[in-house]
Amino acid sequence: MRQQLILRIAAKLFIPFILLFALYVQFHGDYGPGGGFQAGVIFAAAFVLYTLIWGVDEAKRVVSPNLLQVLAALGVLIYAGTGIAGIFLGGTFLDYGVLQHDPVHGQHLGILLVELGVGITVAAVMTSAFLCFAGRKRS
Amino acid sequence: MVELVDMVLLGFMAVVAVLVARLRNLFGVVLISGFFSLLSASMFVVLDAVDVAFTEAAVGAGVATVIMLGTLLLTTSEEKKASGSSLGALLVVLVTGAILVYGTLDMPHYGDPDAPIHHHVAPRYTHDSPEEIGVPNIVTSVLASYRGYDTLGETTVIFTAGLGIVLLIGSSFRSRGGRDGDR
Amino acid sequence: MSALPGLYNYWIVIFLMMTGLFIVISRRNLIKKMVGLSIFQTSVFLLYISMGKITGGTAPIVAGPDAVYSNALPHVLILTAIVVGIATTALGMAIIVRIHEAYGTIEEDEILSQDLQQ
What we know:
The complex is a heterotrimer of chains A (139), B (183) and C (118).
Chain A: H1 2-27, H2 36-54, H3 56-62, H4 65-88, H5 103-135
Helix pairs in contact in A: 1-2, 2-3, 2-5, 4-5
Chain B: H1 2-22, H2 26-46, H3 50-74, H4 87-104, H5 122-132, H6 138-146, H7 148-169, H8 171-174
Helix pairs in contact in B: 1-2, 2-3, 5-6, 6-7
Chain C: H1 3-26, H2 30-52, H3 73-103, H4 108-117
Helix pairs in contact in C: 1-2, 2-3
């Protein structure tokens, strides 16, 4: 029982920092190494740590499987939606220059939205894949 | 000095790859393949590919190891002893390797700045990305803007893989009570 | 042999590729095959990134007016390839779990013999 206590306290200290680091990597992908994929995987790693210590049922109460499935699709929708928004605003598919008054600002906004979509999809897919493997009973 | 790090890392990776081929305990194989991914992430840093190293460390040494360990828990954990010789496979592999080495003999040397790869589209991305896009990380600007269509396809591939996994083994994931197996 | 220092990288990478290929075609355990396939994929990534390196260059993040950057294009391609590789590996592992539940084994020859008996 005492080992469980140490693990739980250590995980409670770590998990917020892992999530914060994932957000940092997501939004600083423009200025250093990083971006959507890396951030999504690190975000999923926090949920893997939670599942390892508190169990699959507790993890499914924290992040419900329906939410994960919706998020996985939402990321692709955000990405494709940015492309379609370019068409509605007068440009071509995935043309970020028309999203704002100035092409360079439009590129910044487009890259931000697109990486957000990628990060959301990757985090949701990795978390749900791990929960599927961890929750399946051995036959 | 950098060349020494380069050669030592690649030597380690060769030893680890041969070890993966010879080990029969699958738990050890999965852990050593995680170590292989970590070595390749270090190699990517030596080759100036910091984004790739980040992704390889997170994905290869992280997610891949976790999913393979999950698979091990649901199946067996020891490989059966090999029956019959693998001489035919060794021959095929040696011939293919010899042909590939012959193919590298007229490649430009490692690190050559006059290699053809540096003369077509890549200089345009490197020179024009700061003015056209204004984002310091050139890899992000190429990935999300110049080659954004490919990244859309890649996101769809990840989504499809997640969909496939949930459909194949996600019966307890989707239900509320946790049934096992599905017929 | 003056080619040795210039091409050592590529030859070691070819050795890694062939080790991965050997594991895929000669081992019968399905999980071992998937691990061999991922070794093969990683060594192909190493080949591409080695081709893009410039001696004395730096990472392709803008840092000063006259810095030499290693070629950014292979980095982008390999980033996509890594993520697609993990997607196929994860899906392959899910299929292996279902195969084990259907046949009771993940050795290729036992699976084939069970199929031939039916």
